[in-house]
Amino acid sequence: MAPIARVLAVCATLVQAFSPPPVPSLAQLALLTPAPNGCANITDRGLCLSSKDAGSQANWEAYRLAGEACVWCGGAQCTDRSADKCMPYDLLMNSQGKYYTTFYAVYDFKVAAFVESKRALSSSLDATCLCTMNSGCHTLSDQFNCLSSKDGRPEGVISGSQVAGQPCVWCAGGRCNPGSAALCEPYDVQMSGEGTMFAENIAKDNYKVAGCQGGKLKSIIQLAPGVSKPTFPLDPPSQAAMSCLKNELAGCFAINDRLSCLSSIDGSTVRSFGSIDGGLKVQGQPCVWCGGGPCTAGGPLASSLCLPFDYLARGAGRAFTSVNRAALTVAECARSGEGNKFDFGDMSCLLPRTNGCNKITDFKTCTSSTDGRPYSFVAGFKAKGQPCVWCAGGACSEQNSNLCEPFDFAVNGKGHAFNSANEFAEYSVASCSPNGIPGPRALPTFYDLHGTPQLVDCGFPIPVWEKVGQVCGFCKALVPKINERYPTCGDYCSKNGGLVCAGASLSTLRTCEAAKAVTCSYQFALEENALCECLPKPGPTALARDFPRPADEHLECLDLAKNGCTAVTDKLACLGSKDASGVKNYRTVAVDGEPCVWCGGGPGGVAGGACTSDSNATCVPYDWMARGEGVVYAYRQQASTILKVAQCSVPDRNFGNTGCLKRQVKGCNTLKDKGTCLSSLDGRKEHQIAGFMIEGQPCVWCGGSACNSNNDDMCAAYDFAVHGAGQAFLTDLSVGRYLTAACENGKPVPHELPSALSNAGVLMMVNCGVPNPIWTGVSKTCDWCKVQVAAKAMPMFQNCSAYCAAQTGNLGCSKAWTSFKHSCDAKATTTCAYNFKAGENALCECHVQGWGSKVEPAQSAQMTPVVIDTVTLAPPVQVTAAPFPKVPEVLSNIGKDCWEACNHLSGLCSFCGKGNACCRHNTTGEGSQPKECRDIPTYLTWHHECVIPVHHVTPEEAAAWAGAQAAAAAVAAAGGSAAQRVKAAGDAAGAAAIRAGAEAEAAQDAFASAAIVARETAMSGPEALDAAKRAAAKAAAKANQSPAAVAEAVVAGAEDAAEQAGVQAAMLAKVDGKSVQDQTVAAAKEAAYAAFDMQQSEPVARESARASAMKVATDAGQHLDQAEETANAAVTAIMSAGDLKLAEHGTNSALRHAFADCYEQCGNKPGMCNGFCGIGNACCRASGGTVVPPECQKITTYKTGHFECVVPQQATPTLVGLVPVSGDDSGPAMDVHAKTGNQDTTGGTQPTSEHAGQGGFGTASFLLIGGGVAAAVLAAGLVLYLLSSLRASRRSKRGARMEEEEEDSDEGTDLEVHAEEEDSDEGTVLEVFRAEEEDSDDGTELEFHRPFGTPQFAPNGGKGGGKGGGKGGGKGVSAPAAGYPHLPYQQGSSAPTGTRPTQLATNPH
């Protein structure tokens, strides 16, 4: 390869590797500062990275400038076009080859973004004494002014950082950051500006922050060279404070060491410098040590290291130019009462060392000696007679290498006699034992004396408390010398996390014992040590609100958990217990007496586990769980919806007459036959289980199958079976078939289990004449004209006379009784006028007024309960029959795997009962699931199972959704030609209708979906009609419909598709700003065109036009009558204009808004844009973007430089080696199988098969497919919405019109009913349902067994799905979860005996 070619190849590789960063969000852009002169005029990093372009120029050709985030190019020019170091995002990221050739900063750029402060100022920082008389911290050049100031600029924020009022930061005399030469910066700029305002915080390890303490400057001020402080920083000591100092006859200026200087006053004969009265005092002044350097700049004593106080304090500008940089320290005696005191005890055994402690170099000598030097003080600290202190083997101070010093000097001299010491080491002081033997005695460490930040166990996360000498338990600590920082324990708790003081005591160092109890507001003396106890922050209250504690009366039946709730591991035991551990409270939360809470989930895949982060316990006390977060544990691990709290069930009935029932001492749950169960009551000694009554409860027979999801028991105690769902167990499995044991006439009689409806009363046919009348408020029918009236319905009637009078016909009351609940057994006879009390159950017998006797029917009629929406009717009421609401049938095949029986698809499925669906719990989100599978509250298994939908979906809606998804999937799989998309949509819609049990509408739904997709793909009229007819014929054949039924379905489907075409046309008119009337005219016209395109008659076209216009009008907010008038006016308008006739297809498919900028109109993204660019057209740009969708590829001609509307190129699909990629089992699943066949019509190469589980797509392929899917899904969603909302208004009108058309038409219907004769010439066929009988030799066939999702493959070969699979390979048995009995329910087939699943990970359901 030539050198130039190699260079170009490398460049191309680099260009391909570059991936632009994400476009800043609108929320981020809103926070950026507008740059009025544009990004290009910014040369400062910080300003660029906090700005957005606000210049006068909005665009450069097609690229946006105004409003774009600025991009900083690392301090160098961004491109070869200009020297700009900062540019707007869109111009820089997308205009290569247009605006510039080379992007210099491709690997060294940063996009502007608002950055939150990384290190916020502590709320405890006191800045009240700081000065604001400055032009900004960055203008201050000396330490004093910097550390006594806060920024005085008026600007609140500069370059995204806080400025005004920020304390200044001194950067140790050097540059703070490479962005400027400043030695001082505002806090937020210096602490948070790294990476935005400047590249590096140079002073990150060596800086000081200005602050105040007690109204004075906090920091030790060091003056910069040649700079004089306006006022001298030191106060002169009092005469008492100088009493220990010695006279230095040679004068302070002659001293060259710190200790001598700080031990002296000037004893020279020079009284003053200058005039005697007004001069600078010298004699008698305490010496000042200047930190080891010359004290002044200039003057006669410029080289002195120690000078008299007054000379130095007032001499600047008089005796010398300025005070030099120094840590100034004045000689004075240690103040009485300050410093660390220590009881030395008997020191008679110690030997004085005349050379002083400071000359001793070994541990033994030091800890057996006192200082014997003749002078009493050194640098103001006691020396003579002080016991020596051994400094843990290290230097006692930074002044020298002394290992031993006198006590007062070593312990209290820091900050005066010396700057630093080995203060955290454990010093030893010389002392005498009780036996008079000299030796070491440990001194309190710095930590012991002053405390240090420590973790204190006081809730979660464990907080750090300041100034802790010793942790003394939960939320309790010893605070040595508390008054050094906090006056009271109340203040201490408040300043350490906003806590409240719970107790305070006086204490001593190194102990947690309280010497004397005091109040939380007690003001501690300077030397006193405090024992402070605080209350932890209360835990969150949301759980206690959402998950309330049961009332005490509901806890009386609970068992006592002697070892506490946390020791219980069984769910039922937990839910039947309360804590009896004897621990009343723990860390402020109640324990003993609290009901237990179960967190451990249960059978059937119910989530659960450990309750909290602190242990693995699955059962805990209520208050622990409700209020303990952040106090006794860090965080709660289970949602409130998982938790169950122990409580006693409140009995809803008194069974009364159960004397005929046999007590079963082993419990109802042990009974396996119906007869025994329904003649028994529970005789176990347990009063309750999980809070539900057990002892003495009648047994309930659960229809011969498991009563609930907990176990396989077929018989259970009444309270447990009826009320335990959601608490003791997840769900009832046989509630519709429950019978309960009861007694009537002294014998066991099974009763239907009372339901909420029977308690409230229902409409029911009563055996009281022919035909049987319907009575209201019935709980149970008992005999001829005799019923038990529901307890909740009786209060409106009060007595049986009023009840009988309120029923249909001229009825009167014959007899009345009180009765047992939901039973025909009478308790006591009463009168017809007896007003029943609350809780009493009434038996009423009625008769027709004027009849002498009852008229017994020849044969008892079937009594059928009638359920309507309103069950409470005020008497007297004439009850009339009303149409039943559409409700799903009873759920069928509960718990079974419905995947095979429902053709490997989720959604409506008659296998589950009409109106019910086959679904599976989807952990990746429900957006791609059918509507009927969304928001299902509970699943019993891991696989697909039958459920009752939360969202009611008609078979038509399900079919439309399936068709739209299939068309989108066709694009995703292999480019998807128009014919492939149409076929996929029609096949899927028909299959969905059949699967939902709507076989009669399958052909119509298939035709409609196919026709809609055909129109969007710009397929010609005759071609589209033929494709839709084929789809209808195929669906009809599968649904066993006749050709006549297919002909009607074609007309109905054509109306659906035509109406949808009209609505899309109205949407385009709306985008153009047309009125509602104009939109309805556009809808009517396009609907008529579409109907004629599909060779429909004029009546069909007229009806389609009217229905489409009416849909547009109602969507615009018009009432039904007004919308009908508007629609009729629209149809009249197109008829009068002569438009209602066969016209050329595709009026609205033409390109719209060809020269306009379509970016914003099409949702700020490229791709398909039917609503602005016209049906089937897209919004694209010549220069592309970060991702180029498939419809924007291969566009050869553009009219502008910005985003514009274009007609996509319909590329001939080429089959790739499509091998399914095994994805996450929880995603929206779609099985994809490649089946080898002939080469496609384009002459491409035959696809090769890869080993199952290896990806068949490269990164680029996935990008292309992703774009296509996104566009197709947008279109699919629109199709679904429009199609499902257009159908309801017309179904009843079609029969009469079809008869009329059959009479008028002499032409036959060209419909091919048999799907086997279909002959497709396409290279790739997409099937969205399993059509095993279809045999196509036209190429490679791709089967999608679930609508749109992550491709997966079936194990054990599958249909061409893996190595050895091939055409005719094994179907592949899907594996169940471990331990779950897999039942292969598949209509029309069964798995061979002995077949075992092998690959659970790839199970499609």
Automatic annotation (TrEMBL):
Determine if Hydrolase is one of this entry's keywords. no
Q: Where is the composition biased (Polar residues)?
A: 1236-1251, 1386-1405
Q: Where are the transmembrane segments?
A: 1262-1283
Spans annotated as Disordered: 1226-1253, 1290-1405
Compositionally biased residues, Gly residues: 1357-1372
List the biased-composition ranges (Acidic residues): 1299-1324, 1332-1341
Q: Where is the signal peptide?
A: 1-17
Keywords, A to Z, come to: Membrane, Signal, Transmembrane, Transmembrane helix
Keyword match Signal: yes
What is the protein named?
A: Cellulase
